[in-house]
Inverse folding.
């Protein structure tokens, strides 16, 4: 049986602070901007806010490279701003969740500086530092962002340090109990400050197999995917269990893991009743059509039956094991409406369909900033317009695999993380109302038509659709069913029909979505004739046959 928790019935929202709202005209979103927009979020129906990192950072990976875990980067504000945000959130019954990035820190963190000064001293053991023997690197793992995971330790010709992400993100050595204690101390410090919990970054990477293990090369660079080492690593559960006991559990913190894992027992281990975290993201749709060989080989649109299969598989496996967190997009992925709808099919009604099939699944809905107004991917006219540190490597890989420059740009334009990071489109004034200065990253020019102000004014907008979905989720009549009701597929075999029941103790709902541009007929079961939500004007029922428009979705009670 699933143990009920305070956060199950809530709705969550991810803020990428750098691109959310700028209050001092430097072109960079800030904490005061988050405070300013709390009412906007409250109105939408949001309770829990996950803030992407705002700690001190050289921003090599946009804050996921932390140089001081207990201070706020001046570009985002001050500790006083953070404390004010906590107070303001609390006064609105809202909760702040921070990003916990402890697989690695920044190479500008004091720990790493001290490790460079004295690799044999105590801080050397906070990292993976190895001597280079006969000019050979200790292993042949390829970092997620391209190139070997090894780089020369500054000041030491004969030593290398390990980073599975960017070279400015040295991996912390979790085998060292002193490091683990430092991390726990920092986590407790934040929890004592009053944050509700953490989103936990890249966490499966903290456990490595023997650092000298090489695997067969999978590209001409002689390197091998980090996935191989992840498969080989055992003992992750011990670290995570210890972290939970030493920190989260003591504070009843809410935690949501960024867990990419194909372990059979993943759901139970991570989010079962005795799991490591409160929740974890469902990345099954995110992973659909992805390739280990690079973005050039990934599918650029995932929809209809493919999307359905991903979502349903997770829901079926999940049963009563735990509470998953459902997403359409985040700061690492293309905009959902540009990826989960067929190309050039992102009308507002299609966006509403996508919203409904996602939010009505069992689990905690996380909305990523801009998703609620249907922000789309951008079109980039040159690789130099892209800031994201992972994109260049993917571009080069596409060229290496024979794509022309134009084709490679087309591929990376779809997948670059900058799509999710363009400034929030508040209104149609210059710079989309995001800043009075020059935004740090180019705006999507479609802000003149897609923006929050216009949608707040217009009752049939996507913004209001999201608001209605969230308020249905919290309504006294349907809330229990939407939060806890059993997930049961309906007509699962019917092509591009995504339909499911949510069967609760107090009632049952049926979600029916025609996940394709063409119309489709659907036989409805008896009952279920009350239309709670419908993204189209028509409800064409003949006998039991519902004639649905392309991308029509209805929620029936
Ligand atoms: C996670 C973050 C991503 C970051 C990486 C390294 O995947 O979501 O943005 O680049 O970890 O911290
Ligand atoms: Ca600012």
């Amino acid at each position: 049986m699933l143990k009920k928790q305070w956060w199950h019935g809530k709705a969550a929202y991810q803020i990428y602070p750098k691109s959310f709202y700028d209050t001092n005209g430097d072109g960079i979103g800030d904490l005061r901007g988050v405070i300013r927009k709390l009412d906007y979020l409250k109105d939408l129906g949001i309770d829990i806010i996950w803030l992407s990192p705002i700690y001190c950072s050289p921003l090599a990976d946009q804050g996921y490279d932390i140089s001081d875990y207990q201070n706020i980067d001046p570009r985002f504000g001050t500790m006083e701003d953070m404390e004010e945000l906590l107070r303001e959130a609390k006064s609105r019954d809202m909760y702040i969740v921070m990003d916990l990035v402890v697989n690695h820190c920044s190479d500008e963190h004091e720990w790493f500086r001290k490790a460079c000064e004295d690799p044999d001293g105590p801080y050397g053991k906070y990292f993976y530092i190895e001597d280079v023997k006969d000019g050979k690197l200790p292993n042949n793992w390829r970092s997620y962002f391209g190139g070997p995971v090894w780089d020369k330790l500054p000041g030491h010709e004969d030593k290398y340090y390990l980073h599975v992400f960017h070279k400015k993100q040295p991996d912390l050595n979790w085998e060292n109990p002193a490091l683990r204690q430092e991390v726990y101390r920092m986590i407790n410090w934040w929890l004592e400050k009053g944050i509700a919990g953490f989103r936990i970054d890249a966490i499966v990477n903290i456990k490595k197999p023997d650092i000298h293990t090489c695997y067969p090369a999978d590209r001409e660079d002689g390197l091998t995917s980090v996935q191989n080492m992840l498969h080989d690593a055992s003992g992750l559960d011990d670290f995570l269990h210890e972290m939970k006991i030493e920190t989260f559990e003591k504070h009843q913190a809410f935690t949501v893991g960024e867990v990419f894992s194909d372990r059979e027992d993943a759901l139970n281990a991570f989010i079962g009743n005795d799991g490591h975290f409160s929740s974890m993201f469902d990345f099954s749709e995110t992973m659909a059509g992805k390739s280990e060989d690079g973005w050039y080989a990934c599918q650029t649109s995932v929809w209809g039956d493919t999307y359905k299969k991903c979502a349903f598989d997770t829901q079926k496996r999940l049963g009563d094991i735990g509470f998953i967190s459902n997403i359409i997009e985040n700061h690492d992925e293309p905009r959902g409406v540009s990826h989960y709808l067929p190309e050039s099919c992102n009308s507002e009604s299609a966006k509403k369909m996508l919203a409904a099939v996602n939010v009505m699944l069992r689990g905690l809905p996380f909305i990523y900033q801009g998703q609620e107004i249907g922000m789309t991917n951008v079109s980039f006219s040159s690789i130099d317009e892209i800031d994201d540190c992972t994109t260049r490597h993917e571009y080069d890989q596409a060229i290496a695999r024979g794509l022309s420059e134009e084709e490679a740009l087309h591929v990376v334009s779809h997948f670059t993380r900058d799509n999710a990071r363009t400034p929030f489109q508040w209104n149609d004034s210059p710079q989309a109302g995001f800043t009075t200065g020059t935004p740090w990253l180019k705006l999507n020019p479609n802000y003149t038509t897609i923006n929050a102000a216009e949608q707040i004014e217009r009752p049939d907008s996507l913004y209001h659709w999201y608001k209605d979905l969230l308020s249905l989720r919290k309504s006294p009549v349907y809330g229990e069913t939407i939060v806890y009701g059993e997930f049961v597929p309906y007509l699962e075999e019917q092509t591009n029909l995504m339909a499911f029941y949510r069967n609760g103790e107090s009632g049952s709902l049926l979600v029916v979505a025609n996940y394709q541009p063409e119309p489709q007929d659907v036989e409805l079961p008896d009952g279920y004739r009350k239309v709670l939500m419908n993204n189209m004007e028509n409800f064409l029922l003949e006998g039991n046959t519902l004639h649905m428009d392309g991308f029509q979705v209805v929620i029936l009670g």
In short: The longest strand covers residues 497-503. DSSP finds 18 helices and 23 strands in the chain. The first helix runs from residue 31 to 36.
